[in-house]
Amino acid sequence: MNTVLKAAAAYIIVLFVIRLIGRRTASQQAPIDMVVLFLFGGLSVSAVLGDDRSFVGAMSALFTVGLMHVAVSWLKLRFVWFERIVDGTPIVVFRDGRWNETAMRRLRMQQADIRTAARQEKLDDLDQVAAAIVERDGTVSILEKK
After folding, report:
1. Mean pLDDT of the chain
2. Which of 103, 102, 132 lies closest to 118, judged by CA?
3. The pLDDT value given to residue 29
4. Element at 91 (helix H, strand E)
5. Which of 5-9, 13-17, 31-35 ranks highest by mean pLDDT?
6. What distance in Å separates the CA atoms of residue 12 and residue 27, rounded to the nearest whole number?
7. How does pLDDT run across 37-88, given as a tens digit for each residue?
8. Fewest CB atoms less than 10 Å from the CB: which of 67, 86, 103, 108?
9. What are the residue boundaries of the structural domains of the chain, listed by start?
10. Class of 89-144 per CATH?
11. HSE (CB half, 13 Å, CA atoms) of 106?
């Protein structure tokens, strides 16, 4: 039972730390982001299993993490406030030619990231951009001026 409790706690802690770190999609991850994710996995396994190298211990941890994921998904469907805590909300970082510097700092994003997203939408100049929104998954949506 100790392994199950540690696995549940590790799930909640890793989820919290990932939310704390910020938003990045797999396509936007720098090598340092990959290092952090791999270390999270390794450290979590060590913390959950400790000296227990048994098959039953490992499977207990695996099922606990799987059930925690199902529970979190269910809670997100049931409670909008919980979904906002776990997944966040879209954040406008550029609108009508003005940068939301506070949001940019909080997201640890640079103007170059938004300019890159605009270029990917075939917009060479920010004068063509009505708004840039960082979505919940970390992608940047560019809304073109009409």
Report:
1. 86
2. 132
3. 63
4. strand 91-95
5. 5-9
6. 25
7. 778 888 888 888 888 878 888 888 888 988 999 999 999 999 999 999 888 8
8. 108
9. 1-86, 89-144
10. alpha beta
11. 11
DSSP string, 41-63: HHHHHHHHHTT---HHHHHHHHH
- pTM of this prediction exceeds 0.85: no
For the record, the structure tokens of 102 come out as 């506070």
What secondary structure, in 3-state letters, does 104-146 show? HHHHCCCHHHHHHHHHHCCCCCHHHEEEEEECCCCCEEEEECC
Residue type, 93: V
How are beta strands 98-99 and 91-95 bridged, if at all? antiparallel
What's the token pair of residue 10?
A: 């590790």
- Taking a C-beta distance cutoff of 8 angstroms, is the pair 126, 96 a contact? no
**What are the residues facing 140 on neighbouring strands?**
134
Alpha-carbon separation of residue 95 from 43, 79, 130 (angstroms): 41, 30, 6
Amino acid sitting at position 106: R
d(CA 5, CA 1): 6
Which of 45, 36, 35, 34 is closest to 10 using CA atoms?
A: 45
Residue 140: is it exposed, middle or buried by C-beta count within 10 angstroms (0-12/13-18/19+)? buried
